[in-house]
Write a sequence for this structure.
């Protein structure tokens, strides 16, 4: 290493060169061996910060060195946490109930300042009790994993600390959003990547923005006059778009249907949840087009105006892809806005092997696509893509006062502040853009293909294994693998009612034990008349075949006595 | 330094101690002198990354050292940028037009991956063309400055990479949000800090959430049945809540009325912008209560239902505080939801000297308060506080499926996923919480008081100075100081129309020159019949009296020939 550096330094003295190398050695030394916590007395580490307060940091006069030192300490804490997160021998979570966690640290806010040393202690405590979302065995959510380039980009975004509304205050980020959205539209298949779009604070908001656009497109007067000026509007979506969340699996079987983003949007927009019509799904969770058309005709007969169909590309629980081509035909025939909620499944467009599952998406009017899910971009990163140009602006801008606009050389497509309900927007673009540069499209493709391969491996492993039952037949289309594990004590029960009652309690108990041991985390939920089942999803690029094997062994180890 | 460390190390060998000290010396060495860019050949710095790709980083096998090295390089780039940002001799911005900026770097996304060295180059380029929001002479927005503890907290938030919806996936952050919102409600003056709240993606969304709650409170059936089931609703707000934004000041006088968050909310919610009634403001920009009451009575006479009054605590341009006590009386009398939009001015509640400006806020039903503005918390950090408990949940949750809920020991107040339209939420709490710990309430108070002191200094300095005219009389209530600078060539013009026409062009040209030189940035806009004037705001804790002096000198230097 030192030799290599010397080769490059040429004429520069050895001291300088040695210094540089030394820095890297020390870094490895301190953070890898976690010496700063284990061997070196805490007092040394804190020496610089124990007597310092925030007032000693920049912009304080001569605050440079103290600031660098403080930030470097925080970085060292984070680097140690990162390395630990990827280490399979560490716990995914060190779980405690709220009241217990409240007592394990002082989290209160007071009038008086704390020393920087106390601040570092708070940083350590926060990470100690955090869930390690980067852990290769963390499968609990649709967003898992921690990408190192994405993380670096997010740190840099925080450092730039600006807002997305104009080119003036965020020149580079506005430009990168423009470049990236265009690329995403090309991938969808819109000619020359034309159209519009925006990064929004999550899939639910992206879906609501789409609904807002669809309504405005059909009845622009609604903006000024409200819903009372238009006939009764109805929207359609699959009955399968429920999102279930568990609140603390340690609570045994407490499940909760969290939201229904299309219904939430309809409630907010003054359309009303009763005007969202749920279309039947087949046994794989895909919307049945004939039922969609039947319900559209039915609504029209009642005098209602169908204005919005939200097809789902990748449902939360089953990972089902609605048949977009057939839905596009129906939307075209009845002149209805077609939206594709690809929050979870949209990223499959990056894969030449799997993108056929979204065939027809190019015919949609809008699409939600969350790179923070299947592309493992750090949270939050959700895009709404819109086919028609200019619509977002006219839908969301207020009476613009152009009185003073005399010079139009400036390309307004770079000013995004008026395209959405928000005025300022958080900078969510840089992490996606930088990751795309680091991986290339083929890198994202490989990452996605690998996750799907892992889920196929899991499916093949358990589909005929004793003690397992699949929730639906056939190979999953996304990485969602839904299954029951039946412990021996449940497996052979003959009373079907009793069997279901017992089975319903199995997944929650196993999950609770997973969290107690901290070995892995996977989600479970009931759906319709189906009792609690595991929903495995794989979006974590750190996961391997061995981790899948481990999960199955762990489920059996923790559940065999139930 | 070495001696001090030795004092603390006690028995530990001198090599170890030396190592520790050495690390800090190198840090200062590399980053302060910017040796890595200036003296050391770039080749060395890049040596480790030139042949590496993202696939060499974690979770790659043996990726630890390479990951640490890569992240440390990014940190070094950021640390150098931070030190530079606070240095008054550096430019606030290195401005280029979009087309020019597009050509200055390769920003395109391709199929193939880039090396980690290329990624570092992109990081440097991104910061090179970014606006230095931390710069002591950056006054352009309501959100300025860069707090070192807030930044550290945001880095840590990115590292934890989780979502806010349940305690299970974000135990610490959910707890800290709970603690902080309670503290904020106590400061508002709600008994025992009771009530509810959430951090949302910005002030416009917080205001919309408040409007949604007000409507639901009065007509809960709107959730299912939509706006057609309720009478015509009307909302009221001050005519002064316009937000003006300039798109590139280099474009001379192009101004733009960006948004009107209450109107935007009304458009989205299906209420319609025509149902937002603008109440007259006095010459200081404060809502006139008698006009409010008159318009409420008028609306009732027309058969409309007044449901929402949004009073503003700190308008964007004038920094005006509406008379909350008088407005509260009117809202009480007519049984209307009172919302206080304190996005900009809410933080004055932290100051014993200035909080009287919000007297009456404790009688509001809800309040928007953006710590990312006057408290200089990194973007984004906006809170909606709500007086009534439980309302957010019932307004926004969809038909909850409690079928399986058998165990209620778990405190549901820690599960926030169903309180808002969003399902997942970005973690915005940690930076505010950690800054609060570092500063204490008194630290925030001192920071806010200082900004107000600076603006009073500016006001006193220019109010009688030759060539200046104030846009409104009297000491500003917030840090907004609105003024015209009249260059000698305009100052003595007798033709009033010509004078206004010329004056209208002064601020844009001065601003354009500021950006060309990169010396400072301050915003300007027209308002009503008033031609372009400067709106100085101070939320940047790095600003000093000397920076105010500099601003005035700079305006005169750049504008004297106009």
């Amino acid at each position: 290493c030192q030799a290599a550096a010397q080769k490059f330094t040429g004429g520069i003295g050895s001291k300088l060169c040695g210094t540089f190398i030394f820095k890297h050695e020390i870094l490895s030394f301190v953070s890898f061996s976690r010496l700063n916590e284990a061997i070196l007395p805490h007092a040394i580490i804190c020496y610089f910060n124990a007597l310092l307060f925030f007032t000693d940091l920049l912009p304080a006069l001569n605050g440079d060195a103290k600031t660098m030192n403080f930030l470097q300490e925080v970085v060292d804490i984070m680097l140690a946490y990162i390395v630990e997160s990827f280490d399979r021998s560490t716990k995914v979570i060190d779980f405690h109930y709220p009241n217990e966690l409240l007592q394990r640290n002082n989290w209160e806010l007071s009038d008086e300042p704390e020393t920087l040393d106390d601040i570092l202690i708070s940083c350590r405590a926060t990470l100690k009790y955090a869930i390690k979302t980067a852990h290769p065995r963390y499968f609990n959510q649709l967003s898992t994993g921690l990408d190192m380039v994405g993380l670096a980009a997010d740190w840099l975004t925080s450092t730039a600390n600006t807002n997305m509304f104009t080119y003036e205050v965020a020149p580079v980020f506005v430009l990168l959003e423009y470049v990236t959205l265009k690329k995403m539209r090309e991938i969808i298949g819109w000619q020359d990547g034309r159209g519009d779009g925006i990064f929004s604070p999550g899939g639910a908001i992206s879906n609501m923005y789409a609904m807002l656009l669809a309504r405005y497109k059909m009845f622009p007067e609604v903006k000024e006059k409200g819903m009372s000026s238009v006939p009764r509007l109805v929207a359609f979506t699959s009955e399968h778009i429920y999102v279930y969340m568990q609140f603390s699996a340690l609570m045994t079987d407490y499940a909760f249907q969290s939201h229904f983003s299309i219904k939430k949007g309809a409630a907010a927009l003054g359309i009303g949840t009763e005007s969202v019509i749920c279309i039947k799904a087949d046994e794989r969770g895909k919307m049945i087009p004939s039922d969609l058309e039947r319900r559209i005709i039915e609504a029209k007969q009642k005098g209602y105006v169908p204005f919005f169909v939200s097809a789902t590309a990748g449902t939360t629980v089953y990972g089902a892809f609605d048949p977009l081509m057939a839905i596009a035909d129906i939307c075209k025939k009845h002149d209805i806005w077609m939206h594709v909620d690809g929050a979870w499944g949209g990223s499959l467009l990056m894969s030449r092997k799997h993108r056929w599952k979204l065939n027809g998406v190019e015919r949609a009017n809008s699409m939600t696509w969350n790179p923070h899910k299947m592309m493992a971009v750090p949270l939050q990163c959700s895009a709404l893509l819109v086919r028609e140009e200019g619509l977002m602006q006219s839908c969301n801008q207020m009476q613009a006062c152009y009185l003073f606009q005399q010079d139009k050389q400036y390309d307004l497509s770079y000013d995004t502040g008026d395209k959405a309900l928000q005025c300022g927007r958080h900078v969510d673009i840089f992490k996606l853009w930088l990751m795309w540069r680091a991986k290339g499209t083929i890198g994202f493709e490989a990452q996605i293909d690998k996750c799907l391969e892992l889920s196929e491996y899991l499916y093949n492993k358990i589909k005929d294994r004793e003690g397992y039952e699949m929730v639906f037949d056939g190979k999953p289309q996304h990485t969602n693998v839904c299954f029951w594990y039946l412990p021996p004590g449940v497996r052979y029960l003959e009373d079907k009612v009793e069997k279901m009652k017992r089975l319903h309690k199995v997944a929650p108990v196993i999950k609770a034990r997973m969290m107690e041991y901290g070995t892995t985390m996977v989600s479970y939920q009931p759906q319709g008349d189906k009792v609690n089942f595991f929903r495995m999803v794989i979006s974590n690029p750190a996961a391997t075949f061995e981790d899948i094997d481990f999960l199955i062994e762990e489920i059996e180890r923790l559940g065999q006595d139930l």
